[in-house]
Amino acid sequence: MKHHHASAKPLHVNPIAHSQPMGATLAFLGVKGCLPLMHGAQGCASFTKVLFTRHFSEPIAIQNTAVSDITAVLDGGDYSILTAIENITQKVKPSLIGLHTTGLTETKGDDIRGAVSRTDYPTVFVQTPDFEGGLESGWAMTAKALIDQLTEKADTTDERKLVLMPHVNMQPIEVEKLKEFCLGFGFEVFALPDISESLDGHLEAGQGQMAPEGITVEQIKALATCGHIITVGASMQVAAEALQEKNPAIKHHHFDHLAGLDATDALVELLMELRHIQPLPQVKRWRQRLQDAMLDTHFIIGGTRMVVTGDPDQLAGLCAAWRSVGAVITAAIATNDSPVLDRIEAEKVMVGDLEDAEALLEHADMLIGNFHVERIAHAHHKSYIHRGVPNYEEVGNQLKNDLLYEGSAYLLFETANIITKASHGH
What distance, in Å, lies between the first and last C-alpha atoms of the chain? Predict the structure, then answer.
């Protein structure tokens, strides 16, 4: 039974959402040496490039087929795709070209599968019109496309090989921490997509051409030999199913999120069961620190009324972490629909925009969301926390950790300190 609903308005007035092609771009940047190629107008690609460059403080490599409304209608896309691939590969030699569409080229119905079949260059394509879905689905569909088009079928598995499928709002450091967490249980770990090394803010020569690190094309080809998949976020179920089609022997373990004590406990329990080993001492230590953090912050966060906005998978984790110390989620406002919304505990759960958030702020103390919530919070004299894409206001987004025992402790402290500061200010 669906208990959440969509905003009754016919359009988003002040949207929180970002488009599917942007999610696809980001996912392709999680493959080593992959160059995202957006099939659409120059403006679509420029906007994406600027948004991610500012959010991650990293130069973002992305090419586009420079379709104008005229060429879109007269030429058809095949020609512009093939020309773009030819031009790009004369200058650089990506390991893979990640071709993804936009509303403009999807409306016309360009045959991108046909175009890709006519190029010799290794290319993966995904159809991501920006008039449906959002950042989360664009990322997930790209992960699925990488598996569908690259991964080779297998019938045996290696129980020690584990593939993590993180949702789009997991920051580079969170992917890295999760990989390390699983490594601690003796797994060989892969992540798809893996932005933990390509967008983590480390300085490297020749930046901005293509993803310098990440999962390799060869590793993606061999993923069907993994014994286990762990998906984080409801959006990633489609990618897990695609991998199980390549090898039904793979076991799939799903987590809606990994924020807070309960979710992390469930992950530890699973990993202990799979590997029959105890967690490392520092894991137990961080669990105790998180318990202490919950105790220390409960008196401050408890009873605080929050309006939380964002993509569904991130929303689920944040709401669970804050609720575990007594926060009241007045409203959880999602960018897009998702089955996970029915599992979020809040007074109101809906698909909507920042105008909806503003309307619900009157009876709340705090607003959570991307860069655009700050203005609204100031206008209503409420405190706010930045989460989600883009965040232009703060540096260090790529190293912002809200997951597992460690990140959850930091999240609770950060929240409590903001509430305390706000109470002194008023």
Answer: 42
Distance CA 15, CA 363 (A): 21
Condensed to tens digits (0 to 9), the pLDDT of residues 56-93 reads 888 887 888 876 665 555 555 677 888 889 988 998 89
In angstroms, the Cα distances linking 191 to 119, 166, 252, 280 are: 28, 7, 14, 21
Nearest 10 degrees: CA dihedral of 146, 148, 152, 155?
130
Strands 305-310 and 366-369: parallel
What domains are defined for the chain? 20-133 (3.40.50.1980), 158-278 (3.40.50.1980), 283-425 (3.40.50.1980)
- CA nearest 175: which of 158, 200, 203? 200
CA-to-CA separations, 328 to 267, 302, 321, 370, in angstroms, rounded: 25, 8, 11, 20
Distance CA 397, CA 411 (A): 13
Residue with tokens 């705090």: 366
* Residues in Cβ contact with 389 at an 8 Å cutoff, skipping those fewer than 6 apart: 18, 51, 55, 135, 169, 370
Pull the structure tokens for residue 7.
Answer: 């905003």
Which residue is it, tokens 């702020």? 361
Mean pLDDT of the chain: 90
Evaluate if pTM is beyond 0.85: yes
Non-local CB neighbours of 7 within 8 Å, separated by 6+ positions:
350, 351, 352, 353, 356
With residue 252 as reference, give the H or E element that holds it. Answer: strand 251-255
CA atoms within 13 A of residue 1's CA, in its CB half-sphere: 1
Using DSSP bridges, classify how beta strands 5-6 and 123-126 pair: parallel, antiparallel or unpaired. unpaired
If phi > 0 it is left, if psi is from -120 to 50 it is alpha, else beta; for residue 57 that is left
Separation of alpha carbons 194 and 34, rounded Å: 12
